[in-house]
Amino acid sequence: MLTAARGSALQDLLFAHGVEFPCGGRGRCKGCRIRVIAGSLGITDEDRQRLAHSELGEGWRLGCQARVEGDLKLELAQWETPILSDDSIFGFKPKKGLGIAIDLGTTTIVAQLLDLWTGNVLGVRSALNAQARHGADIMSRVEFATSAQGRQRLQQLVREQIRNIVVELLSEVASTITGGGGRLSSIVVVGNTVMHHLFCGIDIEPLSHFPFEPVSSGLQILRTSDLGWSIPGDSSLHFLPCLGGFVGSDVLAGILACKLQERDSLAVLIDLGTNGEIVIGNRERLLCASTAAGPAFEGARISMGMRAAYGAISRVHLEAGQLRCHVLGDIPPRGICGSGLVDAAAVALDLHLIKTNGRLAQGDSLLLSSPVSLNQWDIRELQLAKGAIAAGVEILLNQLAADKGDVKQVFLAGAFGNYINYVSASRIGLLDFAPEIVTPAGNTALLGAKLALFDLDEHDGAYPQVLAKTQHFSLKEDPHFHEVFVEKMGFPER
Predict the structure, then answer these.
(1) pTM (two decimals)
(2) The CATH number of 10-76 is which of 3.30.420.40, 3.10.20.30, 3.30.70.360, 1.10.10.200?
(3) Which of 14, 19, 99, 383 has CB 3.0 to 4.6 Å from 489, enough for a Cys bridge?
């Protein structure tokens, strides 16, 4: 039971309870659909533009455009997103005090409070990034930030949210830790380039247009007093530096977590998100790049796509010559998430329901499990996403005068990397590596931030050494990128 003042925006009420607004509440998509079970909501112009007449008749509305005018009973077309934390064991040099590591993601924020003497995690907090009400993906956030007062609003939202998280974590252990060991020593924050700029107050306008190069991407050190946070001890907050372009400090943290900078053989780190980041190298040299994969791996821009939550088809396999689907929560399917999409394409290729050029072989849709199906546009979105990643990997390997046979380990960062079937990913040409060398790496951003808490020396620490070895490469500068991208969009033969 939720309570709201008459005339208030339904978007504000629903966002506080985990409902996302992919286009930032601008009425441009259908990602926030709600259905009126009891009560009434007027039909807006945006509703008429985005929803079919039959949907309107069934009570569907755009949640971002509605206002509460009376009692309502609603059905939501999405669920809260699970957030990936980290429980890795790692080596460290003990130091006094407490530390907080924060993974500031575009969609979610995860923070862990550590005892820096023992390395024990004393508390965990996670939440949907409050900025997401102004756009779910990076470029929607950038668009809002370049509007009047947009940047200040986004900065205020995320700073207040992280302050609240820090206060909650410290309050949780205040009664159990006393003396100098209970003082907050430092905070380390990592995030992509846009999050880095928005939190630190750096002009984001250059990231909104070609050539998409940041004004500043270096280490930012702030005091909690500078941020207006009333926290005893006036601790330091380190927002780690970005690696270049749209490759942020979350990827720097990922390199630390996977120890790419210490490896003799060639290794690959891939974060399969809307802005796919790729790092390839070893102790001699690291090369990184970002590629606009689009949100297909997160279930967005797919006709019945959703995040990996209850009701999502998360796995598809072949059984007795038929498609068989696994649904999260063991309930009737409501949509399909990224891992299910990759599986579905792989199985459909083996059944010759999808051609190698991506065209559907029979009709204009592919039924998975009623009522969930894929259409031609969905397959094209997957091709664009996997083509961008595969092309980026090949071009970086070429820049290093290497090929896939030289790679001995592939790390997949983030939640999607944790759930994807590597055989399916290989079948569709997303990962052109033997499945046995591909490893789910979990939340490498959070693990790397924790490692940095113990090694914040700006000159001799681990992350400055990574920076010295890492070169950012802009894929758009490669004259063959478009050619390779088009080639990688196709699906490989069996």
Answers:
(1) 0.82
(2) 3.10.20.30
(3) 383
